[in-house]
Amino acid sequence: MFVVTRLNGTIFYLNAELVQSVEQTPDTVITLVSEKKYVVRESAQQVVDEIVAYQQRKRQAYLASTTEEAS
Predict the structure, then answer these.
(1) CB 53 within 8 A of CB 16
(2) The pTM of the whole model exceeds 0.90
(3) Rounded distance, CA 1 to CA 51, Å?
(4) H/E segment holding residue 70
(5) 27-57 confidence digits (pLDDT tens)
(6) Maximum distance among all alpha carbons in the chain?
(7) pLDDT band of 69, cuts 50, 70, 90
(8) Stretch 7-31: mean pLDDT
(9) What DSSP line would sit under 18-69, residue for residue?
(10) Which of 16, 22, 32, 58 has the fewest Cβ atoms surrounding its Cβ within 10 A?
C-alpha cells in the first residue's frame, strides 16, 4: 500500500497490487483494475516511484523469508 492525496487534501492509501495505470492529464489519474479512478495531487512519477518501492519491499520480504527457511 502507498499514500496519496486527493485534490481536496484528503490523504488515503491505495493497494499497489490493484493499480492498472497512472496518467498525467495534467492531473494525475490512477486507474485500478476495477476501473475505479482516483485523481491525486502527486505526480505520475511519484506514484510510480511509490509502486516500485512497494514491489521492492515485497520482494525483499519474500527473499528474507525464503532465506530463513533454508537455514
Answers:
(1) no
(2) no
(3) 8
(4) helix 44-70
(5) 999 999 999 999 999 999 999 999 999 999 9
(6) 50
(7) confident
(8) 97
(9) GEEEEEESSSEEEEETTS-EEEESS-HHHHHHHHHHHHHHHHHHHHHHHHHH
(10) 58
Q: How far is CA 49 from the centre of its chain?
A: 8
Order the strands of the 37-40 sheet from edge to edge. Answer: 19-24, 28-32, 37-40
Upper half-sphere CA count for residue 6 (Cβ side, 13 Å): 8
Q: What cell does 50 get?
A: 511509490
* Residues in contact with 16: Cβ distance below 8 Å, sequence separation at least 6, in sequence order: 1, 2, 50, 51, 54, 55
Cα distance between residue 36 and residue 29, in whole Å: 10
